[in-house]
Give the backbone structure.
Amino acid sequence: MLFRLLESFNDQPMMLFLGVIGFAMLGGGIPPIRERIRRRKIENALPSFLESLSDEVGAGLGIQEAMQHQARSAPAPLGPLLEETLAESHASSFDAALSSFATKTRSSQVQRVMHLLETAIEQGAPLQEILMNLSMDYERLNDLMNKRESELQGRGILIVLFICIGLPGLIGFLVGLFTPGSKGFQIDGFLSTFSLFFAVASAVGVAVSGRMLGRMKDIMWFVPLWMTMSMFFFLGATKMIGG
């Protein structure tokens, strides 16, 4: 039954074309997601890292010694990346190592912290107090960012699932139920038109979801695949229910 259902889509070249394009574009959509997960792990670990640095500096350790100690205990990927960067600093200066570490994290939060830390070291400012204040500030910032993302992500997923799967499946079920092809209804033109409509609607829904989350460029890689799924659920429900 499954193979017959798949064979029935041979007269839908647009869906097949979008499917091929969608699977090909997955290769461009997955790396930004993995990079963002990596960056957010570093940013979420930053407040506790700064607090530990503040405690060790307050205990009398130098900032470089404190960083080397925390690099061994900080969670991945923050700890291993810092340890690797500090190991490379033997061939250069400590300031260069901080700049290199900030660049490798590709995080605006870490880059701002390292810049402030370099300035504080140059000016001879009280590092313990500065590190503790930065820790509290970025902890509040990350809590707000995580809360906002959690709320918006749920809404974005709901929009995508409803427009790309729920609505096409429901309409396809109703069309197959009341105008079944097994009873002689000729609705090929209607099916082609509505399948394109759901494909466009799914593209708009995915774009809106990506704009809500502030990751529209990353989400656009998945638009052809969601368009294919929308057409598949509409036509598949119609063919299965209508025979």
